[in-house]
Design brief:
alpha+beta; 8 helices; 4 domains; binds zinc ion; five-stranded mixed beta sheet; 34% helix; Threonyl-tRNA Synthetase, Chain A, domain 2; Elongation Factor Tu (Ef-tu), domain 3; 388 residues
Amino acid sequence: MTQLLYLQDSYLRKNEAVVVAVPPKGIMLDKTCFFPEGGGQPGDSGSISGAFVSDTRILDGDVVHLIREKENVFQVGDRVCCEIDWPKRFERMQAHSAEHILSGLANSIFECENVGFHMDDVIMTVDFDRFLTEEDLLLLEEKANICVYEDHAITCQPLDPADQRPFRSKLEDLKNPRIVTIEGIDRCACCAPHLSSTAQIGILKILSFMRHRGGIRLTLAAGKTAYEYFCKIHKQSSQVGEILAVKPTEIAPAVNSLIEKNKSISYEKNRQFERLITEIGAFLPNDTENRCVCLPDLSPEELKTAAMLLKKDVRGLVVVFSGSDPEGYSFAMTSAFVDVKTLTRTVTAALSGRGGGRFDVVQGRFNASRKEIETFFAGLKGNKYENA
Ligand SMILES: [Zn+2]
């Protein structure tokens, strides 16, 4: 069995070792400072005598350092130098120790059990077995950060049988558990390397939460990850603040008032559009059966609104279309008396178009000239609706 040096010293970055086996995909050593994935924390990467170690896993009960085949030139008995990717490991220890603080406090304050923990290199998620309100989470986050500032010692030791203090554990039946103790805050069985004191976490932030399997799932960032996250958010807030001429901490009310202003502009624009179409309607002849009107540059939504406004007092169809002869026309067709959906096929077949909609309004495109469209609708009379 490989001697796991990180269990005694989680700050050990390098060690010398002897290759004891060369299984497929990697090598096994007599001792290692590489942590194999476990307890929600990914396995270490790094290098072994110049070969890149992409990950470290437990395979068949022992530690395997994963190395690509073409770099794996090792033989049993070789003496090698191991070195972990320390910045990455340190960031993970910051995250994992932060998770223990949060889970310990959630347990002591709200009687929540941690039922899931996952970490990738950016953020981590923690699941608790009961839901917590936003207010609870603010309190939890505040207490956790106070624990960081107070710089509590963190120790990792095999359980002392004489020590009767309780500890958290996801497993019921633990033989020789290793207990991670955050003095005055938490005791938890855990196999992973941890920081030696809470101040090294720097900061812990709950980024979001959602209901999850009858409890809650939190997304967290701690340490360097939290700092980098803050930098990204701050950069964007500052840019938005500059555009809106407010401080980065005041962008939410500024954006809200911008949204309100936009709503009233668009309301006013719609009212003006409706007034304009009603005015146009007053000038259109009433003695024809169908109304077929070409208006410039209307969106599908505007075509529909215009058609609905122009159908008052019209016995036949109202068709509003917009576009150009070379590119074709978008249209909306409606009627106060005729089910326009049943007419769609006749109309689109005659004008090389396509369209669809409901009994009261149909929209689509015509690939015909303006003249062809106007001529077609001028000739379409009541008896032809019935034949359609
Ligand atoms: Zn743990």
